[in-house]
């Protein structure tokens, strides 16, 4: 069963259910028919007996509902109406009927009896006529009842069998209707697994299968975007790596030929050293981006980090790079539960970016909003405003500003902020540029 297709499994299940219903109906049908006969015998048949019924011949069979039902009337003293009924039925049966009739408490009751090897069922209905009790007896031979049941079942058997076979074919068509989009989705997922994800999946249904198809299509679109971003990133990485490698190779080849591009050996070696350091920094940033992607899939261990002290220490360390810049720090005492290494990299990249573009001053503010349960870090510099086209894409990898190096610093900041489920924005404010980071408190 495990290796069967879903179509076959559903069809077998529906066929089994229909077959079980078919068998249950045939097993219960005799009981229903016997109950029908019982109800028939318990019902009154025809008008009250006429006054001269004693002189009329006994009608041995009454056709009611296409069944041959016998009925007569027996009085309290054992007299039958018509009197010829005593000649048709055995005396022992008449005495049994009279005895049951006299002792009967209810107005109507069912009995079964054996007479001369014949199994019969009869009902006695108690009535009053001219102030005296009389008992109307209605009975049917069990053999006639069984014969009718067999005939009925034999007649309906071909029709029910045809209906069962038709239901199996109908269920097969219905199952194919249900599983067709599943097969389509299976083939589509196989193509996606083979990185052939440019063909859209279209399933026009509003049920659960349609929702599943919509989820697969959404996954396909995300994979397409991720693939495009990956291809673009690989191209940018190749471009950024190519420049320092070409400089190092050309300088090394020239020096090997006895030519010093910078005029002397020390100057040429210094250029190679600077390009090597630039290449090393680029590789480190790329590796850190990969590490952040790894951390996003894990549950990191966090500790309390005094964010105000961390910002103050980093600012003091960066100040000597541009002593002419005036720093203004407004830091509340804030502790954040997180990873100190990622928080340090985030603050370093932000402050280094603002320090590169500042003209004369940098303002750093750290505040905590306990009502909204969030921490806000705002950094502003008085440098030139960022162009609107650049501002919309500046957080993407390898998107550089006017004096940018690799275009990875702000992309790393964005990834770190996402690790803390926060928000990172860059805007032109107060004739300068402001970076704002919102991190929710746990």
Automatic annotation (TrEMBL):
<keyword id="KW-0067">ATP-binding</keyword>
<keyword id="KW-0547">Nucleotide-binding</keyword>
<protein>
    <recommendedName>
        <fullName>histidine kinase</fullName>
        <ecNumber>2.7.13.3</ecNumber>
    </recommendedName>
</protein>
<keyword id="KW-0472">Membrane</keyword>
<dbReference type="GO" id="GO:0005886">
    <property type="term" value="C:plasma membrane"/>
</dbReference>
<keyword id="KW-1003">Cell membrane</keyword>
<dbReference type="InterPro" id="IPR003594">
    <property type="entry name" value="HATPase_dom"/>
</dbReference>
<keyword id="KW-0597">Phosphoprotein</keyword>
<feature type="domain" description="HAMP">
    <location>
        <begin position="176"/>
        <end position="228"/>
    </location>
</feature>
<dbReference type="InterPro" id="IPR005467">
    <property type="entry name" value="His_kinase_dom"/>
</dbReference>
<feature type="domain" description="Histidine kinase">
    <location>
        <begin position="236"/>
        <end position="442"/>
    </location>
</feature>
<keyword id="KW-1133">Transmembrane helix</keyword>
<dbReference type="InterPro" id="IPR003661">
    <property type="entry name" value="HisK_dim/P_dom"/>
</dbReference>
<dbReference type="Pfam" id="PF00672">
    <property type="entry name" value="HAMP"/>
</dbReference>
<keyword id="KW-0808">Transferase</keyword>
<dbReference type="GO" id="GO:0000155">
    <property type="term" value="F:phosphorelay sensor kinase activity"/>
</dbReference>
<dbReference type="Pfam" id="PF02518">
    <property type="entry name" value="HATPase_c"/>
</dbReference>
<dbReference type="InterPro" id="IPR036890">
    <property type="entry name" value="HATPase_C_sf"/>
</dbReference>
<dbReference type="GO" id="GO:0005524">
    <property type="term" value="F:ATP binding"/>
</dbReference>
<keyword id="KW-0418">Kinase</keyword>
<dbReference type="InterPro" id="IPR036097">
    <property type="entry name" value="HisK_dim/P_sf"/>
</dbReference>
<keyword id="KW-0812">Transmembrane</keyword>
<feature type="transmembrane region" description="Helical">
    <location>
        <begin position="156"/>
        <end position="178"/>
    </location>
</feature>
<keyword id="KW-0902">Two-component regulatory system</keyword>
<dbReference type="Pfam" id="PF00512">
    <property type="entry name" value="HisKA"/>
</dbReference>
<dbReference type="InterPro" id="IPR003660">
    <property type="entry name" value="HAMP_dom"/>
</dbReference>
<dbReference type="InterPro" id="IPR050398">
    <property type="entry name" value="HssS/ArlS-like"/>
</dbReference>
<feature type="transmembrane region" description="Helical">
    <location>
        <begin position="12"/>
        <end position="33"/>
    </location>
</feature>
């Amino acid at each position: 069963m495990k290796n069967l297709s879903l179509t076959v499994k559903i069809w077998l299940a529906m066929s089994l259910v229909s077959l079980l219903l078919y068998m249950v109906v045939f097993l219960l049908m005799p009981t229903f028919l016997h109950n029908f006969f019982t109800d028939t015998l318990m019902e009154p048949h025809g008008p009250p007996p006429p006054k001269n019924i004693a002189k009329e011949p006994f009608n041995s069979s009454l056709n009611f509902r296409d069944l041959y039902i016998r009925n007569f009337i027996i009085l309290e003293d054992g007299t039958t109406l018509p009197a010829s009924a005593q000649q048709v039925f055995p005396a022992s049966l008449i005495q049994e009927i009279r005895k049951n009739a006299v002792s009967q408490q209810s107005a109507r009751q069912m009995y079964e009896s054996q007479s001369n090897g014949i199994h019969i069922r009869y009902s006695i209905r108690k009535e009053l006529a001219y102030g005296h009790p009389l008992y109307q007896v209605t009975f049917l031979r069990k053999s006639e009842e069984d014969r009718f049941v067999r005939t009925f079942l034999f007649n309906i058997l071909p029709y029910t069998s045809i209906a069962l076979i038709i239901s199996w074919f109908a269920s097969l068509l219905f199952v194919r209707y249900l599983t067709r989009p599943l097969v389509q989705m299976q083939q589509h997922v196989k193509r996606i697994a083979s990185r052939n994800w440019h063909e859209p999946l279209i399933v026009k249904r509003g049920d659960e299968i349609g929702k599943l198809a919509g989820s697969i299509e959404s996954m396909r679109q995300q994979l397409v975007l991720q693939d495009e971003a990956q291809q673009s990133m690989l191209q940018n990485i190749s471009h950024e790596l190519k420049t320092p490698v070409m400089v190092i190779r050309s300088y090394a080849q020239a020096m090997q030929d006895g030519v010093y591009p910078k005029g002397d050996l020390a100057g040429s070696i210094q250029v190679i050293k600077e390009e090597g350091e630039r290449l090393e920094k680029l590789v480190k940033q790329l590796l850190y981006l990969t590490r952040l992607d790894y951390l996003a899939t894990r549950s990191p261990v966090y500790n309390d980090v005094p964010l105000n002290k961390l910002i103050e220490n980093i600012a003091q360390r960066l100040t000597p790079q541009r002593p002419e810049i005036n720093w203004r720090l407004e830091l509340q005492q804030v502790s954040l539960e997180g990873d100190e290494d990622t928080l340090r990299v985030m603050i370093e990249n932000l402050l280094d970016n603002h320090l590169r573009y500042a003209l004369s001053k940098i303002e750093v503010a750290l505040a905590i909003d306990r009502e909204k349960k969030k921490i806000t870090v705002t950094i502003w510099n008085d440098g030139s405003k960022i162009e609107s086209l650049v501002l919309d894409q500046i957080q993407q990898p390898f998107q550089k500003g006017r004096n940018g190096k690799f275009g990875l610093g702000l992309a790393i900041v964005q990834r770190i902020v996402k690790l803390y489920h926060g928000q990172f924005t860059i805007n032109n404010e107060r004739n300068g540029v402001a970076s704002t980071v919102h991190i929710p408190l746990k």
